[in-house]
Amino acid sequence: MTTAAAAFAAPPELAGRVVEPGHPRYRLLRSTYTRVGSPAAVVLARDARDAAAALAAAQDQGLALTVRSGGHAMSGRSTNDGGVVLDLSGMNGVEVLDRAAGLVRLGPGARWGAVAERLARDGLAISSGDHGNVAVGGLATGGGIGWLVRRYGLTVDNVRAAEVVLADGTQVRADERRHRDLFWAVRGAGAGVGVVTSVEIEAMPLRRIGVVEMAFEAKADGKALVRWAAAMAASPREVTTGAFLARDGSRAVLVVTAAVAADDPEAVRAALRPLLSGPRPLQAKARMAPYTALVSTAHEHRNAGQQRASSTSALLPEMTPEAARALMRAARVLPGAMVHLRWIGGAPNDVAADATAFAHRDAKVFASPLFPPPGTWDDLRRAWEPVWAHGPGSYVNFESTTGADAFDRSYPGATGARVKELWRRYDPGGVFRPLPI
Ligand SMILES: Cc1cc2nc3c(=O)[nH]c(=O)nc-3n(C[C@H](O)[C@H](O)[C@H](O)COP(=O)(O)OP(=O)(O)OC[C@H]3O[C@@H](n4cnc5c(N)ncnc54)[C@H](O)[C@@H]3O)c2cc1C
Description:
The protein is of the alpha+beta class. 26% of the residues lie in helices and 24% in strands. Strands 12, 13, 14, 15, 16, 17, 18 and 19 form an 8-stranded antiparallel beta sheet that branches. A 5-stranded antiparallel beta sheet has the order 5-6-10-8-9. The longest helix is centred in the C-terminal third of the chain and has 14 residues, at 413-426. Flavin-adenine dinucleotide is lined by residues 32-33, 67-74, 77-78, 88, 108, 129-131, 134-135, 137-139, 141-146, 190-191, 195-196, 397-398, 434.
């Protein structure tokens, strides 16, 4: 075990909430999904007051502070070496505030699988990410691309208010009327403005969805990707697909999962017509399932630094033949990589580019490579550059690098200038600063 360099002098109000090296719980609290850290202390916050106390004590003692909700950051930045980790996993409440309006309040530590399970009891669902072990805190402050994205938009598009502890310990509520700048930043660049201690989100009435899994041969000419994109463009917004490029022996295969936000099997069949009217899939399986079958508590696992892959993404305005060939080439030259594709044309495009800190509102395709070791970030960057030629933006939550280039890709142009200004205004000392600016 690495020895932490500095000790944390816990203030009395955090008594019993601090886990340090040597404590039996330290082994599982030191790490995230992507990184083993060696923090001086992990503070298990119960509420905003604990968060403010940890923040003040870390700053007084000159220790770095890291905010963690679910510990799924691709960059591993939700742990550190020698600093304080503010762990919000215990702040995991899921509360239905108004069933008719679909308004729910979520704690940052709630995992999306648990959120889906609780809301299913009320016949509601949130457009979140796909993975049930990812938590609200990181996803709902960065973007949120999941199975309902075409119909209901990004997670941040459905956030109606957020409670935030600022760097100076002040607790504020941000919404369309109060602290509007902060509310803007929380929806896409929230990691740099404070600790979000709860979010109010609009959920949608939804019980079952149609799920179809298909596989198609994908040749180097990229035609399978172009066909998939054309079928998605012709499909109603109820249909969202997640796809990935994989190898099946010597051939590449595009594995597509389509989720259809419709309860009626006939409506599901009709919605899938464009996807199913192309070339015959190598295989296809269809079923009706509860939403919780896709965003599931079965995804929950402990985070022990087990995922060391490098990742980034590209947000493409369309799938041209050239972009498709670039994606096929990237998948081929990155050994062991998995290239994920999602068609996000739909509700995210209805939101103006300057309405939230998630700028990429013309994007129709989200493409993200996951490149395992011994492959490095530099190898990945070189292989992915031809893809960026077709769409230079990226989604901050899939960046494994914490370099300034990740900021420029995630927050381009006027959005980037405003994010920088707000990160500096709300966090002048750079306590939270997730990326250099
Ligand atoms: C296996 C896997 C699957 C994924 N699937 C999807 C997906 O389908 N869709 C999608 O959109 N994304 C997905 N992601 C990316 C995911 O959105 C990000 O990794 C997200 O940051 C994870 O949130 P977390 O709270 O679990 O992470 P954490 O590691 O706890 O937090 C990540 C960072 O977010 C910031 N942060 C966390 N909590 C707060 C808070 N309460 N207030 C302010 N800042 C905070 C901090 O800077 C922190 O370092 C996936 C990631 C993985 C590893």
